[in-house]
Amino acid sequence: MKLVRSALAGISILAAYGMLLGVSAFAESDSAAEQKPALQPEPGSPGDTLTREDARMALLVYKLLDKDGKIKGANITRGKELFYQNCRPCHGSDGKRFNFAPYYEPPAFIGQRAREEMPTFWYQMNFGDKERSMAAYIDELELQDLIDIAGFAQTLP
Ligand code: HEC
Question: Which one of 71, 91, 121 would you pick to mutate in the ligand 1 pocket, going by the greatest count of ligand atoms within 8 A of its CB?
């Protein structure tokens, strides 16, 4: 019984608090000059409806690409090491062991795709492509590793 009563008290305190909040929100919206920007949901919170793919791609577009399509904040030396460890076995040290024909005509290689089409490169590296037997690295490497690899890939021929 005691428990029920304190729960009820808790609820009415919450309700009163809610009314206070409601009233102050109302008061605030009166002064148009003080309009606040709409609250954005925290990344990963229930209100955040971006898919993992969308979030990774948005990060690239809004944070990682400069106006010339170059990756910002990449450690190229580290990227080279990581590329050699993870990508070289298939793509070769110059990214030219095999081309991406028949997907692109004329044939395309890692370096050129990274420079000219970073969004495709970024997507393929993060999420892979089962149909084309390219592995997904989003759960294999840290974000900074992927940034470093992407930066290094842009220096390949
Ligand atoms: C087990 C072999 C293998 C490894 C390891 C590998 N790849 Fe691939 N990758 C492939 C294959 C196969 C394709 C598809 C080739 C095709 O479609 O012609 C591919 C395609 C890609 C593409 C798509 C290019 C485009 O523009 O469509 C990118 C980008 C890529 N790989 C980047 C990487 C990076 C970066 C790494 C290292 C983190 C890596 N790959 C490691 C086999 C591999």
Answer: 91
Atom of ligand 1 nearest to the CA of 117: 26
**Distance from Cα 134 to the centre of ligand 1, integer Å:** 5
Mean pLDDT of the chain: 82
Q: Which fold has domain 52-153?
A: Cytochrome Bc1 Complex; Chain D, domain 2 (1.10.760)
Share of the chain above pLDDT 90, in %: 63
What pLDDT does 155 receive? 98
- Domain boundaries defined on the chain: 2-33, 52-153
pLDDT of residue 133: 92
Work out which ligand 1 atom sits closest to the CA atom of 86: 37
Query: Does residue 103 carry a pLDDT above 80?
Result: yes
Please say whether the beta carbons of 89 and 110 come within 8 A: no
DSSP codes, 33-79: GGPPPPPPPPTTSTT----HHHHHHHHIIIIIB-TTSPBSS--HHHH
